Amino acid sequence: MHPFTYTRASDVPEAIAAGRRGGRYIAGGTTLVDLMREGVERPETVVDISGLPLRDVVATERGGLRIGALVTMAEAAAHPKVRALFPVVSEALELSASAQLRNMASIGGNIMQRTRCPYFRDPTAACNKRDPGAGCAARGGFNRGHAILGASDSCVATHCSDVAVAFAALEATVRLLGPDGRRQVPIAEFLLRPKTSPDREHDIGDGELITAIELPALPRPLQSGYLKVRDRQSYEFALTSAAVALHVHGGVIRTAKVAAGGVGTVPWKLPAVEEHLVGERPSQSLWATAAAKSADGASPLQHNRFKVELLKRTVERQLRIVGGTE
Ligand code: SF4
């Protein structure tokens, strides 16, 4: 492993100052330590932020929920407010990683985690994300797990967080604190598509720290849930997934929030599906016609064409489950 300096921040200003000097933040360490061992990440300074007071889950004045960035995945999944208000978040977390990792990994770190593209993690392979300008070994290589939506000539890697898919569906915002003060960024803008710079993955500056994820107030009652399709039933990343939240009043869908995972270079919001649902009455045929729009714009690679149909079926199945017709 590349030699590095370890420091532990005792408060938020100290962490921001260290981050501004180029330090890399570490909390649970479940992504960064792996990548440092593999020689993919080589930070000069690692700043331990695990002791900072960012561990609360609180109801917001507006009726939403704010989850502190250092709340662990396990704590968030089990939290009574999260389970009651946003089961889609709990389910996405519980279907992620292993119990051991969920006990270590933080919510902020989870959305910052880096891709599982095997070429990214192989320092001998060409990878624009690891080494800008080097090329993309996945485009001509084995790309069964890669993206069918949001890819560029530079990179076709998927975003691998499950809970970020739930956050995207719900239109969560990322709260940041940095040298220039506070910012709130919609998660759809915080997670960047690769375009020509796949090495730049987040709208975050030097010294900026994620302090919390804020889930918005949504009309109640709200039914929600997360479905993940993968090669094995545990400790595996999604081939496809669907996060769905529906508010039905008077027999009519008034609000629909839908996003897909495992298919996009970022968690993939599905506005065409949402628009198709709102104002309609739940039915088997409605779920099917809405889900048919979920792969609009897909651009599959040599080995992942199956994801186009699998995505439609995943979304349809989850609409049926959440909509109460299964
Ligand atoms: Fe690297 Fe992205 Fe290509 Fe994977 S898909 S090899 S992460 S550039």
Number of helices: 13
Question: What value does the average pLDDT take?
Answer: 96
Series of H and E elements = EHEHEEEHHHHHHHEEHEEEEEHHH
The best one-word shape is: globular
List the ligand species: iron/sulfur cluster
- Assembly category: single chain
CATH architecture of the largest domain: 2-Layer Sandwich
Distance between the termini: 51 Å
- β-strand amount: 15-25%
Helix content: 25-40%
**How big is the Rg?**
19 Å
Please list the strands of the largest sheet in the order they lie side by side. Answer: 4-5-8-6-7
Number of domains: 3
CATH class of the largest domain: Alpha Beta
Provide the low-confidence segments as ranges: none
Strand tally: 12
- How would a crystallographer describe the biggest sheet? 5 strands, antiparallel
* CATH topology name of the largest domain: Uridine Diphospho-n-acetylenolpyruvylglucosamine Reductase, domain 3
Provide the structure class.
Answer: alpha+beta
InterPro entries: CO_DH_flav_C, CO_DH_flav_C_dom_sf, Diverse_Substr_Oxidored, FAD-bd_PCMH, FAD-bd_PCMH-like_sf, FAD-bd_PCMH_sub1, FAD-bd_PCMH_sub2, Mopterin_DH_FAD-bd
Protein name: Xanthine dehydrogenase family protein subunit M
Pfam families: CO_deh_flav_C, FAD_binding_5
GO molecular function: FAD binding; oxidoreductase activity
